[in-house]
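Reopening this one. Same input as before:
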Amino acid sequence: MKLAELIRALNRLKVQTGSLACFGCGYDHNCSTQGCRLIREAVEKLCAMEWIDTKVELPQDDVAVLTIVSGKPCENITLVSVPCTGAYSESEGWMIDEFLTWKNPQVSYWMPIPEMPEVE
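Same output, byte for byte:
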């Protein structure tokens, strides 16, 4: 099952599980009104792992994200759909960390950077 199909299926389930006899997961006690909390959280995590089309949505201003970028950052370098880190600014446009002087990079997709792992 592809990620988008899984998210759609979980979205349908998170509402429907409110009518099932829930034995309790210990996370929530109002599943009958909001649906299963575990499924809602799974949907949120899975959605954060998808590439987002820049034509559909842009990230918050000046927040570091992963990008898929194309273009010529330098005279002798041409990139085609290369993953890079960067940020978007309404006033400045896209800024790519690997090529800070690059003017008008063509960013087609972005996604949030995952949280750092907890170190014990």
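So the earlier flakiness isn't reproducible anymore. For the record, The chain has two domains: 3-47, 52-112.
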